[in-house]
Write a structure and sequence with these properties.
elongated, 94 residues, two-stranded antiparallel sheet, alpha+beta
Length: 94
């Protein structure tokens, strides 16, 4: 049920996600995104954490009406937003 009831929607056209990857995969992802940023194709923010937090909002357990919100520890999405805004500012668009 966790996968089915985990928040995944993009309400504002911006993709946000928590990934469970190795340190090497983090490096590869960051290299790819940095290359896309350098090419002017996107702007991104990233925050790397050792653990994640999950909050479950329950409406009805009997009917499986609940949603999970997953975020990285130590600031998670908020810290990624700070990183995103820093990059936007460096481009002169923030």
């Amino acid at each position: 049920e966790m996968q089915t009831n985990t928040d995944f929607r993009k309400f504002d056209g911006i993709l946000r996600m928590v990934l469970d990857v190795s340190d090497r995969q983090v490096e590869k992802i960051d290299q790819y995104l940095a290359g896309e940023l350098a090419d002017g194709k996107l702007v991104y923010g990233m925050h790397v954490a050792d653990t994640a937090l999950m909050t479950c909002m329950v409406f009805s357990l009997e009917q499986s009406e609940h949603v999970h919100f997953v975020d990285g520890s130590n600031g998670g999405f908020a810290m990624a937003a700070v990183d995103f805004k820093r990059r936007m500012s460096q481009l002169g668009t923030g």
